[in-house]
Request: fold
Amino acid sequence: MTSISLSATATGKADAVVVGVYATETAKGVKGVALAPGAEAVDAAYGGALAKALDLVGAAGKDGELTRVPAQGDVKAPLILAVGLGKKPAKGEHLNPDTLRKSAAAAARSLNGKAKAVFALPAEDAEQAGTVAEGVLLGAYAWEGLKSPRKDAKGPVAEVTLVTAAAKQAAVKKAVDRAATIAGAVNLARDLINTPPSHLYPQTFAERAQAEVKDAALATLSIEVLDEKALTKGGYGGIMGIGKGSAKPPRLVRVAYRHPKAKQHLALVGKGITFDTGGISLKPSNAMDTMKSDMSGAAAVFSATLAVARQEVPVNVTTYLSLAENMPGGGAVKVSDVITMYGGKTVEIMNTDAEGRVVMADALARASEDGPDLLLDVATLTGAQVLALDRLSAVMGNDDELRTRIVETAKAAGEEMWPMPLPEYLRETIDTQSADISNMGQRMGGMLVAGLFLREFVGEGIKWAHLDIAGASFNEKAPYGDTPKGGTGAAVRTLVRLAEDLGSGK
Ligand code: BES
Ligand code: MN
Ligand code: ZN
Reply:
């Protein structure tokens, strides 16, 4: 992973130095570019002609635009990489942190294979320094897969020096540390998602979680794993039922973070289907391509919990990972089977591909017993979510204020989420003759029907929100901004920020 250090000057040797460039326009409409704060020393070493050189080779300052010029004069790196930061903010206006983070990420991503880079972007206070650090670490992420060792392998840029005049301030160091913890958590989630299901299945996911908790070596953090025996004994009929079709048995992981000064208790539940074939209601093969990512919710809640613990946020968090592989083996649950869930409710399985809600229901019922102040679940739950919102996540729940709060928290954390309703009239579409409830309802509004199903398993009086991250969790296209190809780590930053807000009494 990329390491970050702070420096007050941009004079150190490196393979590349990154500066920011703004788009400018005069009152008469003449377009040009201007260097962003942080670039002063680089420009001076270049002889004061850097903006002009960038203009000559076609830089326009567009968000995330990358322009390369060879260094000259006293610049210590052979390459100057200018990244566009959009329209120059007017006097008194602040540069949008999303733009800064995404542009820093795009620049970092393009430096893969380099040993050392200096980032001389705007970093005038702790907040901006943290934003640049977060962008660099998110952008430098690369899933290297399981390829044989190659000489031409290009890992992420190894060492980054972040230039900030405030390098000595404790608040700046703190903000950069926080950014490193958060980006580390997002990148952990990405790694878990990208790991193929041959390697990451319920048992190995649980073992990895145990190893991460052990590594963190925090007295405040503990982990417990229920295997198939314990799950059967405990009455977890939903998780066991979905796991039955696979040779790889399910797991329920419970992570507890306890802070002595905590005033609030947050419970998190994540969907951890390590591969979703659809089960007996088999998916068409092209719809299966990305289904290793069906554990993104579990990856997100776990990684976020680790980050909250590492940052010693004064809040209690109890996190459940509901892990199973949805396979059509001989023992698999069948269409019209009725299973008894944790807590005793019965569910008629009318489509084995609606497995997520079934494993989540057990964990929601169990999490409710801990008596949390807030209960959040995160799941790649429905294809309908992707159709409705593409790469934005959907937020549903039983409390409008909480739903609004999560959408706003996401925005502040640099993620995109949108509120969705749970219309009462759809509830009756999951009524059935043979059991308390069916796992399959009306097709239209499928995302909302899934949310209504989950609501049935939330304990009385508990404020609950459901995040459907089906579209946000995995990026099949080219990387953009701070989002790589493959697993994205969606929801991690929002969850950490929510925990921080709860910890500071907000
Ligand atoms: N894991 C899928 C949802 C999904 C689809 C996530 C595409 C990411 C991308 C989920 O288990 C599923 O198969 N849902 C079904 C439910 C239906 C059978 C009621 C769906 O949405 O088609
Ligand atoms: Mn499914
Ligand atoms: Zn699924």
Q: What stands out?
A: The mean pLDDT is 97. Residues 276, 294, 351, 353-356, 380, 382-384, 386, 440, 446, 470 surround BES (ligand 1) (CB under 6 Å). The first strand starts at residue 3 and ends at 7.
